[in-house]
Write a structure and sequence with these properties.
Its main location: cytoplasm. Belongs to the gluconeogenesis factor family. Pfam families: CofD. The chain is an alpha/beta fold and about 325 residues long. It folds into two domains: about 1-40 and about 135-325, CofD-like domains (Rossmann fold, 3-Layer(aba) Sandwich); about 45-130, no CATH class. It is built from 14 helices and 14 strands. The strands form four sheets. The chain has a seven-stranded parallel β-sheet, sandwiched between helices. A three-stranded antiparallel β-sheet has the order 5-4-6. The longest helix has 13 residues, at about 95-110. It is globular and about 50 Å long. The two termini are about 20 Å apart.
Length: about 325
């Protein structure tokens, strides 16, 4: 299998959303791999949420950040695409220019998928960016107490233990569905990467699209989960790595995660600014026995990067390990 991989650019599919996804993609770029990013369309916060409410487009924020991570445009042009208007600009307050461009092109083309493919060419994207669906989806959750709630922001703010999540279309007239290119990317991949990112609100919304979940259960690719370094307020308090994987497996009804990347570097408690990063609380607890009981191969190493008084994944170290897993040297051109 390794020899076969060296005859083509290994196909790596990265699925998720939020701030973790662009970090991994940026460090996989220019590493002689064929990258496809499948990005959540269930975000309802910030500029993305405002645009969604006003003109009913797929929230563009995560897609914008992924596009910048994979773009070969000069930095000045990327900075302009990322520029967010100041609060004093009342009409445009808080909006990123890139969000407005994506929203405009989506409206012009009648959907987010074709818009992103066109803009990817304009942005000189090295790889493929696939919105998980061609329409906005609404995230729903059932909590351990039996109550239910809709909306990503509301779910995480509820402060309850999440039992399960699912996605619905805006008018609930049909089931959410990914376009065929998304399914084909999963089925043709050599490696599929989930995370890092919010378990219930960035990763699972993609998997809860029925034909995406089915493809993940059928693919022969190695499915790698990058476990979060820190627990997340409103989602994964007191979780172990095995708890994360157990939730993923339960949502798809089978043990489909093959490999788990686990950070072993200790996070200095005094370094974390809990007020600034109020979504994190404590390091995710280790449970190697629990992971192996679900059939997971565990890769434990120092994947930690401390910056801005928070704990994050070191994108280069993670990318190096992903390349090692598919039998390619990180230094190989």
């Amino acid at each position: 299998m390794i020899d076969a991989l060296h005859t083509h650019r290994p196909r790596i599919v990265v699925i998720g959303g939020g701030t973790g996804l662009p970090v991994i993609l940026k460090n996989l770029k220019n590493r002689h791999v064929d990258i496809a990013a499948i990005v959540t369309v269930a975000d309802d916060g910030g500029s993305s949420g405002i645009l969604r409410n006003y003109i009913n487009v797929v929230p563009p924020g995560d897609i914008r950040n992924v596009m910048v991570a994979l773009s070969d445009l000069p930095q000045l042009e990327l900075d302009l695409f990322q520029y967010r208007f100041k609060s004093s600009d009342q009409f445009f307050a808080g909006h990123a220019i890139g969000n407005l461009i994506i929203a405009a092109l989506s409206e012009k083309r009648g959907g987010i998928f074709d818009a992103v493919q066109i803009l990817s060419k304009m942005m000189k994207v090295d790889g493929h960016i696939y919105p998980a669906a061609n329409e906005p989806l609404e995230l729903n959750a059932e909590f351990s107490d039996g109550t239910q709630m809709s909306g990503e922001s509301e779910i995480t703010a509820a402060g309850k233990l999440i039992k399960r999540v699912w996605v619905e279309t805006n008018d609930d007239s049909h089931k959410p569905e990914a376009v065929q290119q998304v399914v084909d990317a999963i089925m043709n991949a050599d490696q599929i990467v989930l995370g890092p990112g919010s378990l219930f609100t960035s990763i699972l919304p993609n998997l809860m699209i029925e034909n995406v979940g089915d493809a993940l259960k059928r693919t022969t690719a190695d499915i790698v989960y990058i476990c979060n370094i820190m627990t997340q307020k409103g989602e994964t308090e007191n979780f172990t790595e095995a708890d994360h994987v157990r939730v993923l497996n339960q949502h798809l009804g089978m043990n489909f995660i093959n490999t788990v990347l686990v950070n072993m570097k200790e996070v200095p408690p005094a370094y974390i600014d809990h007020k600034k990063w109020n979504e994190v609380s404590q390091p995710v607890k280790h449970d190697f026995a629990g992971l192996r009981a679900m059939g997971c191969r565990v890769i434990s190493a120092d994947f930690l990067e401390l910056k801005d008084r928070g704990a994050f994944h070191n994108g280069q170290e993670v990318a190096d390990e992903l390349l090692n897993l598919i039998g390619r040297s990180p230094d190989e051109e």
